[in-house]
Amino acid sequence: MSLLSNLQIDGDRLWDSLMEMAKIGPGVAGGNNRQTLTDEDGEGRKLFQSWAEAAGMTMGVDTMGNMFFTREGADPEALPVYVGSHLDTQPTGGKYDGVLGVLGALELVRTLNDLNIRTKHPIVVVNWTNEEGTRFAPAMLASGVFAGVHEEAWAKDKVDAKGKRFGDELKRIGWEGDEPVGARKMKAFFELHIEQGPILEDEGIDIGVVTHGQGLYWLEVTLTGKESHTGSTPMPKRRNAGLGLARVTELVHEVAMDYQPSAVGAIGHIDVYPNSRNIIPGRAVFTIDIRSPSKKTLDEMRERIEDGIDLIAEALDIEASVDEVGHFDPVTFDPGCVKAVRDAAERLGYSHTNIVSGAGHDACWINRIAPTAMVMCPCVDGLSHNEAEEITKEWATAGANVLMHAVVETAGVVE
Ligand code: GLV
Ligand code: MN
Ligand code: MN
User: Fold this and answer.
1) Cα-to-centroid distance, 293 and ligand 2 (Å)
2) Ligand 1 pocket test: which of 32, 288, 361, 365 has the largest number of ligand atoms within 8 Å of its C-beta?
3) How many whole angstroms separate alpha carbon 237 and alpha carbon 233?
4) What is the distance in A from the centroid of ligand 2 to the CA of 276?
5) Interval between CA 377 and ligand 2 midpoint (Å)
6) Over the stretch 14-27, which tens digit does the pLDDT of each residue have?
7) Ligand 1: residue whose CA is nearest its atom 2
8) Which of 385, 386, 389 to mutate for ligand 1's pocket (most ligand atoms within 8 Å of CB)?
9) Bridge partner residues of 267 (DSSP)
10) Is 362:241 a contact under the CB 8 Å cutoff?
């Protein structure tokens, strides 16, 4: 391992690539809007392809549009070590959520190339399609199909707010590949990601060794009352779906507060119909996102919220329906891969702490089919899913160095 101890990625090159990718699908406030299966996503993929091929890797694309770039290993029979994340962003997303994990993986291959380091196992750099789930719910859609959690046909039938199908949009941007999804076998999977929370920055720690990920439910609620005149309908006769929405918003917050500090909950997307100044809302459609590292807590929260919605609907004389649009149980990452991440941080002299991921990640699904772990680096004020999301070059460099060491150690150096 003496060869490994001094191995460092090129932080300037990684940063330049992050800034170059951020030029594609710029947001309105310094971040990015490169939502999945848009033209901008297609353009970002092309740039990534050109970089990965320039680094000597060969591309495979599966029928969900997941992109895989292989750096050959010395042993052609050995299972590859996979490493990557996602290039799609939120509509008002930052420059690093997902992108750091993909370009950090690319950077580690560039570094191995520079130093002529060969590994026994091949290394495959991956970009998973539609991690964000903002345009097509649920999140981590294509890694979920890869891991056998979702049916491919079901995923391809998902529609966006304009009624466009995932499958049609994937074809339209030219990224439906021909590989069967999930056919690839992995020795391990590693994902580098910004923390998206405040712990590492607040505590002045370089590296989060991700041991667990919290579970979540995404629920879509439809409340149906009756549209009527805001001026002339007597208060007792109103069937106000908007009031129902307000009460459910409060309910979700209160339920999450009851389980502090290990639960969160919020309503994110809201549509109120007909959305007119002087019409009492007849319908409200909105999404609930609840999360916890404890399955018991998560299930209790869901039950309390669903019961509470029934009571609210009854009191307001409105109808309520609740559909589950996303779910995964809390995740425990592979102890061997977690140790590889911790050992890497230790070897490189970075401060580190165990951490639970608050966000969902492709690694959460891949963990079901291959030994998996994640590396986290801090982000400013813990802010993410916001165009102002920021990190420093030093944080990105430390994260990518730990990622490289964990991957290279797992892939085995051929001296
Ligand atoms: C994915 O970004 C999530 O919502 O955690
Ligand atoms: Mn992400
Ligand atoms: Mn995200």
Assistant:
1) 18
2) 361
3) 7
4) 36
5) 13
6) 999 999 999 999 99
7) 132
8) 385
9) 288
10) no
Distance separating alpha carbons of residues 72 and 53, to the nearest angstrom: 13
C-alpha–C-alpha distance, residues 272 and 134, integer Å: 19
Exposure string for 39-51, b = 16+ CB within 10 A, e = fewer = ebbbbbbeebbeb
> pLDDT grade, residue 5 (50/70/90)?
confident
Distance, CA 342 to ligand 1 centroid (Å)?
24
126 within 8 A of 83, measured Cβ to Cβ = yes
Which atom of ligand 1 is least distant from the CA of 358?
Answer: 5
pLDDT of residue 2: 53
Q: Which residues have beta carbons under 5 A from ligand 3 (an ion)?
A: 97
- Pocket lined around ligand 1, Cβ cut-off 6 Å: 132, 139, 359-360
Contacts with 202 (C-beta within 8 Å, 6 or more apart), sequence order: 382
Per residue in 286-328, pLDDT (tens digit) is 999 999 999 999 999 999 999 999 999 999 999 999 999 999 9
Q: How far is the CA of 132 from the centre of ligand 3 (A)?
A: 5
